[in-house]
Amino acid sequence: xxxxxxxxAVTALAALMHTLHxxxxxxxxxxxxxxxxxxxxxxxxxxxxxxxxADQELLMKQAIVGMALREGLAADTPFGTLATTLxxxxxxxxxxxxxxxxxxANKIQQVAELNREIAEKxxxxxxxxxxxxxxxxxxxxxxxxxxxxQQPRNGAVxxxxxx
Length: 163
Description:
Blueprint: H1 2-32, H2 36-70, H3 79-88, H4 93-137, E1 149-150, E2 158-159
Antiparallel strand pairs: 1-2
Helix pairs in contact: 1-2, 1-4, 3-4
């Protein structure tokens, strides 16, 4: 009974993680297309999924404690240790589910890292563009760059002494 409950919790967690992976891949495409409206919707969906995953992890931890106690292990036995112990006793189903979770977690981490890099580069590009636009918009007819001067067309010279 405890094993079945744990397997159901792990299966549900894996399904949520697969969904999160799909959402993250969609986010990558939306970032590439600079689809701001879709990115906002995707971000909301991501937050909801992350909350569901956290809730499911809590259920899974409770099931792990119950299964560990049933197997004569400590209540704080890690999931990997429990899965390995059961595999050594001949029940490899939980061990296979653990490998599936690790695989999807690695995929999620890779896509999330890619999305983070895209977002950072996009932010850097926007900052550089805004700096350039600000410089162009704020050019003075009197002063040149800091400490320098700008020659007006009439031949007079003004010097910036503030720099």
